[in-house]
Amino acid sequence: MTYWYETPDDQKDNWHWMGVAISLAYTIGLHRNPSPTAMPPFKQKLWKRIWWSCFMRDHLVGLSMRRPTRIKKEDFDVPMLELKDFETKILPTHILPSCSMLRDSALLSDLAHLCIAKAKLCLCISHVLGVQYSVLIRDQGKAMGQDGNTRNCVMLSPKKLDQTNEVRACDAELADWLLCLPEQCLYCTPNPAYLDARQANLVVQRALLHMCYYATVSALHRPQVLPSAETAAQPQCRALQDISRRQVREASREITRAAQSLFHLQLARYLPTTGVTVLLSAIIIHLLDIKIPSGGAREDAKRGFMICMGVLELLKDNYASAEFAMHFLRSKSTRLNSSHRLYLV
Q1: Run of H or E including 141
Q2: N vs C: which end of the chain shows fewer Cβ within 10 Å?
């Protein structure tokens, strides 16, 4: 249900259904470490996977919608996922006989490593959102829509620009995450000549993981480089501003590079809805750099914008969120949008 999306103003959006799921998870005790209990081992593993699935989805929804997360680190004691928590053994042939993935234990193991890395990244996302953003409640959390109904307007807004030490701590945590990635999770542009169905599956998941990483880096540093930050910055924050400006530009470039690679491999359409989130984080920075009067950075930003818009256009056939995002972006950049396909070649 958290993947269901009708309109941006829908009261029962993915954040709503995420809250329902997490409330149920707390009610049945999924947030507690199952190891000390008499629960059978196979069920313990299942509960851990479900809990961390809730945690990951909660934080990715929070990152994408600028909404506060429901799960706080201090409110659960479920250990981090391990490879042994996943079902990586080859299943009997009578179970989904047409699914070759279930007969490939090496692929299942690689996907498990990617899931663990994603869970650890979501812990970093939790810290980033806590450091850089706070809950802003407009009109006591309610606003009147055009249809006469009220809708929740609880949003995350950037904090003051004096979070220097906290930002650097989050930066170090993200750098450690990247440094400690296992070999199964490392992303590189593959050779199309050797790309079979198994590799294609891994390429999409590895690319998405790294795009999520760079979207998190962008979320950490973006408050320092938004237009409102230029006049608000104090002298002691200017050094961090310069670092943040470089970080968000690098993040947008890396997201764009991965998106373009997936497009050339004809795999971009297989990105999940999280792909819309990471593309938007890159497009925001591209749009800011397009406002630069002249220079190479402006041309790079225009090219990056077109690439990301081209991939969004592919995703809009699958996800309403991509279509709404494109409508919004087109209203902001009609002149640039007309030729975005040119930059995908």
Answers
A1: strand 133-144
A2: C
Distance (Å, rounded) from C-alpha 280 to C-alpha 335?
18
By residue count, the chain amounts to 345
User: Cα dist. 121→177, 178, 217, 220, 327 in Å?
Assistant: 7, 9, 11, 13, 30
Which has the minimum average pLDDT: 41-45, 135-139, 216-220? 135-139
Structure token digits, residue 276: 């819309």
Cα dist. 245→20, 227, 254 in Å?
38, 12, 14
Spatial distance between the Cα atoms of 184 and 109, rounded to a whole number of angstroms? 9
pTM: 0.86
Determine how many CB atoms are found less than 10 A away from the CB of residue 155.
16
Are 181 and 212 in contact, with CB atoms under 8 Å apart?
no
21 contacts 2 by C-beta, under 8 angstroms: yes
- The position carrying tokens 């000390």 is 36
Please say if the pLDDT value at position 293 is more than 80.
Answer: no
| Interatomic CA distance for residues 46 and 44, integer angstroms | 5
Q: How confident is the model at residue 155 (pLDDT cuts 50, 70, 90)?
A: low
Torsion angle of the four alpha carbons 187, 191, 197, 198, in this order, in degrees rounded to the nearest 10: -40
Quote the pLDDT of residue 162: 62
* In contact, 315 and 268? CB cutoff 8 Å: yes
Q: What is the DSSP letter of 190?
A: P
Cβ atoms of residues 60 and 125 within 8 Å: yes
Q: How far apart are CA 296 and CA 51, in angstroms?
A: 46
Nearest alpha carbon to residue 229 among 138, 324, 157: 157
- H, E, C per residue of 34-86: CCCCCCCHHHHHHHHHHHHHHHHHHHHHHHHHCCCCCCCHHHCCCCCCCHHHC
Q: What is the C-alpha to C-alpha distance for residues 152 and 154, in angstroms, rounded to an integer?
A: 6
Q: Among residues of the chain, what percentage have pLDDT more than 90?
A: 48
Q: Exposed, middle or buried, 284 (CB in 10 Å: 0-12/13-18/19+)?
A: middle
Q: What is the pLDDT of residues 112-146, one digit of tens each?
A: 999 999 999 999 999 998 888 777 544 444 444 44
